[in-house]
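pinging the channel bc i need a second pair of eyes. not urgent but kinda urgent?? the chain im working w is below, pasted from the shared doc
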Amino acid sequence: MNAGAGFGGVVLSALTGQRLYGADLGTKNPVVDKIPHHFGKAKNVIFLFMEGGPSHLDLFDPKPLLNKLAGKPLPESFERPVTAMGEAGSPLLGSKREWKQHGESGLWISDWLPKHSAIADDLCVIRSCVSDGINHAGGVAQMNTGSVFGGRPSLGAWVNYGMGSVSENLPAFVVIKDSNAMVVNGTRCWGSGFMPASYQGTLFESGTEPVANLNLPKGITGERQSGKLAFLDQLNQGHLRGRQSNTELEARIQSYELAYRMQAEAPEAIDLESESEGMKSMYGLDEDHTRVFGRQCLMARRLVERGVRFVQLYHGAGSKWDSHSGMEKNHSRLCGNVDQPIVGLIQDLKQRGLLDETLVIWGGEFGRTPMSEKGDGRDHNPTGFTMWMAGGGVKGGQTIGATDELGLHATEDRLHVHDLHATVLDLLGLDHSKVVYMHKGRPERVDLNEGEVLKL
């Protein structure tokens, strides 16, 4: 029925000349469900963000020459990049991983992610990603907002603006961290920048109580709570008159209304205990080392299932994937945390028929260098690294792009962050060149007018 209503909207749009995004559609709700520019298989996004920069050289991009030249300096034929820590002349660090090809596609995956072998044919691995952020602040900012300088709208906010929400009782854009540590750049990573604050992400906490104060206080009935909020809204609306330019004030008023509706809907949505023991085990909730991220992934599935448009999960909040030293210990632990939960998420979405309409993205703000740092670590590498996508109309079991023989620079099908963002919108049915927000007389886009769509 939803699909029928959507096609009816497309016909109505053609007859009336209505713009295909950001239209009012007869409502004051800024995140109302909107009509896309073209048919996109993806309806939702789950972004698995490994904060700190996972090593592509040890996960998805094997480089035999790296081990052959281990301990030697970077050959002069390779352009030496400016590194974050500036360690000059450091020797190449070989990879200790064992590599195998998996699935019918023969996708290369290292032994740090052994369970990923079960989803190899669902993954589209992009080995040629490029960013401008040499440090964590710039890299995380650009991967989330398109700019190395914080303050622009996040990708989730752009999706929220371009597509709206299909749920009236849950936020359209939800963020979940794996700990109390804050992500680099803080809330600006899921902020709305110069857009109305209604498009920003809503932070759910990790643990067993993601939403604080969700339940009604003891002794307060639903009728009494409704009456209190109605009176509060009357006062707020009076205060808003003459201050309509204050989007934060308007968003705060709307958040009260959403919070009241969430008291009816959200408890069921975040109730992981209602899942079967088999399902919990599928996500790794029965193991200490996978339980935290497993809860995040299971929560993401339950949220998109209930109409949440964009869910961003942060693993390693506080740049824990950073590995300037002790990479073996660091990545062994972190990969162990996420391997089973990610596989469980993909398999669960697939068996429910949700993977076709849910775009899953994996990656960090950059990769790592082939040169060593402190003898057993790797520095930041924004000039060539790996991300992958699954579902949402993306053809799985393929590898796109390449880095050079040492994994330092992208050499084929270079995909800049701007191109990545444009591609995400395209998979959702949005033309990134037409999803425009006017700010101070300037037409602003998610890709800073620089992105090109990569057909996947």
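so The two ends are 28 Å apart (CA to CA). and The first strand starts at residue 44 and ends at 50. — does that match what u expected or am i reading it wrong
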